[in-house]
Recover the amino acids of this structure.
């Protein structure tokens, strides 16, 4: 009896610690949810008919999900019987990679993890680099159905395809040559071109290139830096990586849209195409001025990202500095700064933003400033609490005993050691800033109405809620996806930066 | 009679002791000295008169002479010079001899004074005497039966301050209220200043581009816009305190009356959402924390994260589309008399808060569950349920209530968006509507009164804590 219970616990622990099993489980659940969503939307309730395209997609998703369930059971049996995953099971992962055609990121990421026995963070990053690139190409390729494309479209697509091929090569090379924290010197010839390809806005490529270079430079140094553990924990966290994937994808699309998308589609009125339902040429339909909703959402991503990031970075810097000064000097300085910030803290962010916009007018710069001012106190409080804690550590006393100046102590010793909670906090609040931006635009107080921004698109769409509800639903889904991604990433960063949570 | 007298003595002694402590507190000292100026001046006068013939002065003079004669100061100075030299050598710095000398002399003089004071004190103590100070004079005066009754009228503010200082609770509540008043004042100044430095000219905005100069001047005169900044600021602060902000630029309605009519709607909506959030989120958070990494946990935390990520205006639109247009279960437009119309706005406004509270409850309960006292409670043989509810949740609730207090402010602000979506005429949509004009006094009134509500609620939560949480109570008594 005792033995049976102990054995059961052991297998449970084995299953729990197996990254492949956990990911496979996550993948089929995620894939099943998408399948069910497709199933629901494949039936048109009003005309009592099945939408053929959606139905086909649903069937494809269902088939791959079924395969994934079987694969998960196989992995489970392998682990329980043999203690490790069989090579044949791993080889089955190559089949699941085919689900890339359907755009099922859950299955593809799980499959890429499954096919490799030893996974380095570099490999994971390389896979995500490739996935980002493919997603950008797929989204840009939708323009092929349009009556006309941007002049630079073909050149841009060829460059993107070439970059994707290179990224595939990088995946193979990192899988083959990168061992645990050991990167051969030859890979410099991969790292530099990789950095060059990050010009397409591929954040994963940028990160991977930098990491490879740093690893190559430190290859004779056996010491393990703190960031390496963080990187390893972060790359093992599927939800955080998927969040990062979506952010990187949006960023990359925002950059590439200069070349592959036609801005005219998003802003020029076309009265022959008013309020068209979704079709191949206009995947999300057209609005009341005949503008392509899909193109508008793509161009809106740019604004949302810029405003979201800027209105987080500004208060991060300002609030962080104030908090650090306040926490380090204490007494009167602390009292004066914190009491002044209390005043700011008492006004709800949205109302303060409304007041500022009422005073200075609605435009992008004022919006960023208005949202930033309201966020200063929270950052200052977080930073102050961290600094108060870090100031009591011995290395600060040591620095003071060596005669370092206050500025040197604050910026060289205290601030770097109290950054982690600030990074987590800012990632989690970017989402809030994106929501605030679109909320204010929706109220008519944010971005100028002629600019395609998600809140503006929604505001327009909300007037056609009864007849053309997709005009309001799709931009909302885009906002949710972006905010959710930042929240997933923030949660993942918090877990990665705080080993206590494990 | 005798008991009453000794009681009075004790009372006087307590006042004296508290005043002594109070004077050591740097922020209270100035208030005490100013508030009780007549009493303090009298005490100072008595103190000075006494001091002249005091034994302390003569002892000090003697001791100083002795120590000077023993060459202590010279000895200290050479010691300091040596120390400074070795310090400079260690850090490899450069400094001139004269500079070092003056530094050493200064340090030596300081140390010398300290030694003198120490010696004098110990000598006096040997003789069984105490140094006469301002506070000891005050205490001696208090022992005089006539002093307290006579000084109670001129020194009333001072005695009130001493009374507040004597009890940690009173002191805490008093400080918290003072801070709240300061914050409210700061909010009024800040919002007014932001609107004042606006580059727009309200007169041109309201009257239109075609307005004549005379009309503009008349407009500015009526609304006091021709006054200097400080006068306008004072008028506004006074107006907020007296609930009289005058008339709005447009519509000729009294601002405070309009706000008073609209604020209850917003408050009702917010409180209902808060209630919904607490009822749903706290049980979910606790169950998630007791079964971490289970299906229940994953599912509900994912839903919570999605709830955090949904823009409320979009959620409102989708609800209207689903429940009002497609299913026709709930009416789309709000009317205060129909409770059915409350459902959608309350759910939309409460979603974000529900998600935040559920996440916070989970995190905070998880943290508490691993504390030693939980293991102790389990080891005592308490049932799981009892451990959870009596020991874990009670302790976990403290940060949760703080979060609720802070989020409440965000909700009052966020109500603006929800109100616009459902066409509710609350304070939020009032501010948004006025923003388009822009009607400066109306915006100012709306924002400031919202901020005041939030500050007061947070102050009340903080004060309640002081009575509920034993940890805060003990911390309060320490200072």
């Amino acid at each position: 009896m005792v033995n049976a219970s102990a054995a059961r616990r052991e297998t449970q622990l084995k299953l729990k610690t197996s990254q492949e099993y956990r990911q496979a489980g996550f993948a089929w659940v995620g894939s099943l949810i998408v399948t069910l969503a497709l199933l629901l939307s494949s039936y048109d309730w009003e005309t009592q008919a099945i939408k053929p395209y959606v139905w086909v997609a649903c069937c494809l998703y269902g088939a791959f999900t079924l395969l994934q369930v079987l694969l998960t059971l196989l992995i489970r049996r392998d682990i329980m019987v043999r203690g490790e995953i069989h090579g044949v099971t791993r080889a089955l992962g190559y089949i699941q990679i085919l689900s890339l055609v359907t755009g099922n990121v859950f299955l593809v990421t799980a499959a890429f993890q499954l096919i490799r026995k030893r996974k380095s963070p570099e490999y994971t990053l390389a896979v995500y680099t490739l996935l980002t690139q493919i997603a950008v190409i797929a989204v840009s390729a939708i323009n092929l159905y349009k009556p006309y494309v941007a002049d630079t479209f073909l050149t841009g697509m060829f460059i993107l395809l070439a970059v994707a091929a290179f990224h595939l090569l990088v995946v193979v090379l990192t899988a083959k040559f990168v061992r645990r924290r050991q990167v051969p010197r030859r890979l410099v010839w991969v790292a530099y071109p990789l950095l060059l390809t990050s010009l397409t806005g591929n954040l994963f490529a940028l990160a991977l290139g930098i990491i490879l270079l740093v690893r190559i430079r430190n290859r004779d140094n056996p010491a393990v830096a703190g960031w390496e553990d963080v990187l390893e924990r972060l790359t093992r966290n599927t939800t955080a990586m998927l969040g990062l994937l979506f952010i990187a994808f949006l960023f990359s699309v925002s950059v590439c849209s200069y070349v592959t998308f036609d801005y005219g589609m998003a802003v020029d009125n076309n009265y022959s195409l008013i309020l068209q339902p979704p079709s191949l040429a206009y995947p999300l339909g057209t609005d009341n001025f005949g503008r392509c909703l899909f193109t508008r959402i793509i161009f809106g991503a740019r604004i949302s990202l810029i405003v979201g990031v800027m209105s987080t970075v500004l208060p991060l810097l300002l609030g962080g500095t104030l908090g650090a000064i306040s926490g380090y000097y204490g007494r009167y300085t602390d009292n004066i700064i914190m009491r002044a910030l209390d005043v700011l803290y008492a006004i709800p962010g949205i109302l303060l933003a409304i007041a500022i916009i009422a005073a200075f007018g609605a435009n992008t710069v004022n919006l960023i400033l208005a949202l930033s001012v309201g966020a200063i106190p929270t950052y200052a409080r977080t930073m102050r609490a961290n600094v108060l804690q870090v100031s009591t550590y011995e290395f600060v006393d040591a620095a003071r005993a060596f005669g370092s100046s206050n500025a040197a102590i604050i910026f060289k010793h205290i601030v770097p050691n109290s950054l982690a909670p600030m990074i987590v906090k800012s990632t989690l609040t970017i989402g809030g800033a994106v929501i605030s931006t679109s909320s204010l635009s929706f109220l008519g107080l944010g971005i100028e109405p002629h600019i395609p921004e998600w809140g503006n698109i929604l505001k327009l769409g909300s007037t056609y809620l009864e007849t053309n509800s997709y005009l309001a639903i799709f931009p909302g889904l885009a906002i949710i996806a972006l905010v959710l991604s930042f929240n997933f990433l923030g949660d993942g960063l918090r877990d990665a930066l705080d080993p206590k949570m494990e | 009679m005798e008991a009453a007298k000794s009681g009075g003595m004790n009372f006087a002694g307590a006042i004296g002791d508290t005043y002594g402590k109070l004077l050591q507190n740097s922020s209270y000292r100035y208030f005490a000295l100013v508030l009780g100026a007549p009493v303090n001046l009298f005490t100072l006068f008595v103190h000075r008169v006494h001091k002249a013939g005091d034994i302390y002065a003569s002892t000090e003079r003697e001791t100083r002479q002795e120590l000077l004669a023993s060459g202590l100061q010279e000895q200290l100075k050479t010691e300091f010079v040596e120390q400074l030299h070795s310090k400079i050598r260690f850090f490899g710095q450069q400094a001139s001899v004269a500079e070092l000398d003056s530094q050493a002399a200064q340090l030596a003089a300081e140390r010398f004074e300290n030694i003198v004071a120490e010696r004098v004190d110990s000598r006096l103590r040997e003789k069984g005497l105490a140094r006469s100070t301002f506070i000891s004079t005050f205490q001696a005066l208090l022992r005089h039966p006539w002093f307290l009754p006579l000084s109670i009228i001129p020194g009333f503010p001072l005695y009130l301050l001493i009374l507040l200082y004597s009890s940690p609770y009173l002191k805490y509540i008093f400080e918290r209220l003072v801070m709240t008043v300061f914050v409210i004042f700061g909010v009024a100044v800040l919002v007014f200043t932001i609107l004042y430095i606006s580059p727009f000219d309200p007169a041109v905005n309201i009257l239109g581009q075609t307005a004549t100069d005379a009309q503009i001047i008349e407009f500015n005169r009526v609304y006091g816009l021709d006054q200097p900044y400080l006068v306008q600021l004072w008028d506004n602060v006074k107006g907020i305190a007296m609930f009289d902000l005058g008339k709005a630029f447009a519509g000729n309605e009294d601002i405070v009356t309009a706000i008073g009519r609209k604020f209850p709607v917003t408050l009702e909506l917010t409180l209902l959402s808060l209630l919904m959030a607490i009822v749903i989120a706290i049980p979910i958070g606790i169950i998630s924390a007791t079964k971490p990494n289970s299906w229940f946990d994953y599912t509900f935390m994912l839903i919570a994260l999605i709830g955090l990520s949904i823009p409320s205006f979009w959620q409102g639109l989708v609800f209207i589309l689903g429940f009002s247009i497609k299913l026709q279960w709930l009416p789309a437009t709000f009317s205060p008399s129909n409770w059915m119309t409350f459902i959608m706005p309350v759910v939309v406004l409460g979603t974000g808060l529900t998600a935040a509270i559920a996440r916070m409850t989970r995190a905070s309960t998880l943290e508490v569950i691993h504390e030693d006292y939980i293991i102790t409670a389990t080891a005592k043989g308490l049932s799981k349920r009892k451990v959870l509810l009596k020991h874990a949740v009670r302790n976990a609730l403290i940060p949760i209530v703080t979060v609720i207090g802070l989020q409440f402010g965000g909700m009052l602000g966020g109500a603006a968006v929800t109100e616009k979506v459902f066409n509710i005429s609350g304070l939020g949509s009032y501010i948004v509507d006025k923003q388009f004009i822009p009607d400066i006094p109306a915006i100012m009134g709306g924002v400031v009164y919202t901020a005041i509500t939030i500050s007061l609620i947070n102050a009340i939560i903080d004060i309640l804590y002081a009575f509920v949480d034993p940890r805060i109570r003990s911390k309060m008594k320490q200072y």
